[in-house]
Amino acid sequence: MNHAYRLIWNAAQSAWVVTSELAKRSKKSKGIICAAVCLISSLSQAGQVNVNGTSIDILPGTIIDTGTLSGASGGYAIVATNTGTITSDGLLTLKTGGGNAHAVFMQSGSTASLQNTMITTTGGGSHGLDAFNAGSLITIGNSAISTGGNTAFGVRAVGGGVINITDSNVSTAGNGSYGLNVTGAGSVVNAAGVTVATQGNIQAGTSAAGADAENGGRLQITNSTARATSITTSGSNAYGLLAQSGGELAAAGDTRAITVRTTGANAPGAWVVGTGSLMQLTNVDIQTSGIGSYGAAGVGAGNRLEINGGNVTSSGESSAGVVSNGSLVVIRPNASSQGTTVQTTGANSDGLIAYLGGKIDVDGMSIVTSGDASRGARAEYGGTLSLANSTITTAGLQGYGLSALGLDSSVNATNVNVVTTGGNVGAISANGIVAEFGASVTVNGASTVKTEGFSGMGLLSQVGGDSSEPETVLTFNGDGNASIFTLGDHAAGAAVCSRAVGASDCTDILSRDVSGEIGPRAVLNLGNADVSTQGASSFGLYTYGRGASLSAQNVAISTAGVNAHAAMVRNGGVLSASDSSLVSTGANAAGLFMTSPANVVGTAQLSNILIAATQGASIMVDDGAADITMLNSKAETNNGLWLSVAATDLVNPAVANLLVDRSIVTGAAITEPEATSNVTLSNGTVWSMSGSSNVSSLRNAASTISFAGPGLARSPGFKTLTVSGEYVGEGGLIEINTQLEGDDSLTDKLVINGNSSGNTSLQVNNANGKGAYTYNDGIQVVQVDGVSNGVFSLAGRVVAGSNEYLLFQGGKSNPDDGDWYLRSEVPVEPPVEPPIEPENPEPPVEPPVEPESPEPPVEPPVISPEGPNPGGSKPSLYRPEVGAYLGNQLAAIGMFQHTLHERVGELDFSEAQRGEDGTPGSVWMRVKRNDFTADTGSSQIDVQSTTDMIQVGADLVHWTDGDSRLHLGVMAGTGKAKTDVRSNVLGYKAKGEVEGYSVGVYGTWYQNAAQPTGAYVDSWLQFGDYDNSVKGDGLAREKYGSKTWAASVETGYAFEVGQGEGKAYYVEPQAQVIYTDYKADKHREANGTVVKSKNGKAVTTRLGARAYIRPTEKSGVRVQPFVAANLWRSSDDTSMSFNDTTHKLNTAKNVYEFKAGAEVDLGSGWSAWGHLGTQVAAGDQRDVSGQLGVKYSW
Length: 1194
Known about the structure:
- This protein has 4 helices and 92 strands.
- With about 1200 residues, it is mainly beta.
- It folds into 4 domains: about 200-210 and about 225-420; about 425-615, no CATH class; about 685-825, no CATH class; about 880-915 and about 925-1194, Beta Barrel (Lipocalin), CATH 2.40.128.130.
- The strands form 5 sheets. It has a 46-stranded mixed beta sheet that branches. It has a 23-stranded parallel beta sheet, with no helix packed on it.
- Residues about 1-45 and about 830-875 have low confidence and may be disordered.
- This is Outer membrane autotransporter barrel domain protein.
- Keywords: Virulence.
């Protein structure tokens, strides 16, 4: 049956007591008071309301106060057993005062439903609510629970009990007290809209806590519709949230965060401990302010802490944000994709820590630390940390962004952004991402690192000790959008450091460590990222120590600052870079800088690398030994030095060993006294040498050393490459510049102080030399002070003006000096052994010879400069291109020259066929070929020329006076000439080509136009325009234009000398004068030679006779054979200049011509003609020609 209780005044007890609603007031009675008090005080399970298997309702306004007896346990305010039920909907006040005096105690399946209840307990171990055993249930709302004794819990479910509490306040004041507690399998506390405040400290090893789940119990914390849940602790060692010994605690806010606050020392906001414990936090804001107070932590193996969204903030010293000590911590964004934020402000307060086997798995998180020596996120001593899509910011001194420390510690990060802005204290700086002392760090994706501060390292892999220590590895592999940036002096974008015992600190990047000990192995692998630094002595890549190795692939390195080298290798470190760029900007900032102590060798292996140092050397070695390999790389931008090898420490001067393979380097190479540089160029490497250089030894294997031109602004003047030791040529090429003139010409030079060996090609570029004869040793281009076993040969022709230069070993004055010279003279032919004379020879008897009348001598054709010929026994050496230019000139002048009969054939054939009516006229066409052969240039050059042309014309006007007639016409032609020139001395060849057209007019007067006899006068005027080219062996094709004007006057008289049977014989003496004016464009050859037409005016005369036979019968086809002989004489004034040295083609002045041919009267107005002819002259000059013509007259 239900009973209703109310609070009434008991006069006997002088107190308000709970009674049945049927009870009345009692009278004063001491015995009754005593009996009542004793009853309540003597029973541990007794209560003012004790329900056993029944149900009661407590009326509103009821107050239950159990009172307190000194030294005794207090009674419970409400007790229900055996499925009893208690309900209170109105205002209910419960107070207990003794130890272990719970306000509400439900057990054995009992149920309590309370609203608007005010609960206060003051004794130790006195809980506000206690649901004990399976099936026990307490539901309470809009209530306030307060406990004041030690280990007195506000809400407690145990042994399978369940408590649902909403919109209520829970406070505890005693040490070791929990606001909410659930323990035991099946026990559950559901708290919604609850405010929990605990003030106690630790009690007998038991800490106070705002909310606790343990031993398989489950605590669920949420917000209610009306209120957001908050949990606060103020005592030392007082946890905000606690899951221990297999307990499960879940706190889930909604759009409103659940807040957890702790203010005491060593008071974590959330703590998971024991084995098998679980804590799940969603949209929970945690704040701690005491020293040593973590925001959230998992301690011990088998525990799990989950954080989804929300914020974790700590402000105390040594107060980390989230910690895993052997547990698993998983951090993810909430359902609204809001990530978790962790922020610490105290010194030595890391954002995340995983250690001693602990694991933290993070996605979508923001970590901020501002205290000194506060790391953003770290794994140490076997901890594992995984991060993705997160940001880390640290602002304190010595603050690492992301790090791993110790053996078996590891960090795996993807798409993380790390920013550190603090400086250093002593040897410890604020660094971005660090792996140290046996740990492993791997970073992937679009990750970024930024450090600001002195000696800040973007990436740092470091280890110290001896070589037996474990390997430390940091791998940063971006996706192409990854970047590393440092701002501050003495910083490094990516640094790897192995410190031997007693060595300098890794981050002291300027110290000179004299230790040569081998330290543990430290590795840094960097790929697919941009690395940039700003600050003095700040390096892009930095490797330090004999155990340090840095590998960079597809990385763009840029530095800005004084001495800010793009890459630095110190103390025997190893750098391996591929598909990357090393760019430095700043005074004395090298692309690659290497230095080591004595007996220690640093190593740099560069493959497909671009090195650009705008104000420093591309590669600089200062003290110690360095092995450098460049493969398929470029070092083109620098301060003028691609290699600088220094000896700052004279006890330990630099020794640089370089292999440059399939690469391009630009600049000078300078080796200071006492330093050593051993350079090997191989497999097509090109060294563009912009300044005089010196190396210790040089091996040129199938590579090119190209001296920059003397006229360049950055590298003026001629240069010298000095090899202080051995020079070895293995099919290499050296390209130099020489002002090709006489013996004292300015030139680049290779100087070998040691010995030379092997084979090297030498390419010589003319540097504005005009060409001249070398009278003495010539132009020295290679000097060998030691044993000169090396063989140098010209890689191409060396020409200037009209001169050809050859390379000779040995001077004229000392043929055994071993040096190499350029001379412009005909080489010496091996001497011919004289014939052995027989003993006592009989004098030969010569037959008498009749003297003949000697012909006047004919000058041989020769190409020679104007002025005196060079002296000496060896003539100047000419290049065949001169003959090609002059051959083109000769071909253009003569291409369209002709006689009257070559143009029109036999006039009276066409005149006799004209009709009586109509206006007379005619059209004609002729084709002609000439093959010309000559020797020129002191018999050094053979010239062969072929000219083909076609010409057409028409008579436009005829004037007739009796049988005499005047013809006026126009003509046009096109032609092409090819000239082949060969040097008999060298075998070099040149080809000249002329292609052009002509237009002209002509006029002819005939005394007897229709008769075979009589006089004639013919004249013509032509203009020609030509495209010319000259191509010499090994030289560029040269193209230029030219033009001609030509005029001719010719006369002749034909007369009959006899007749035979059906035929008559005629002779026709002739005379002709031709004037030609040739002009070629001024042309500069690729080698610098300026070619101009010096004098293109020429007068050519012809005297000759023509004899022919013609049939007297005038019907049918008539054939008129003929022969002709002519003497051609030229003024020989045409010439061309080469660098202001004038040359002319001295062909024979008198040329004898013989022709034979026929003219044919075809009838019907058609006539045709043709001939074969030859010309001969002194000097083996020959010309063979052939022509065909056709004409139609009306």
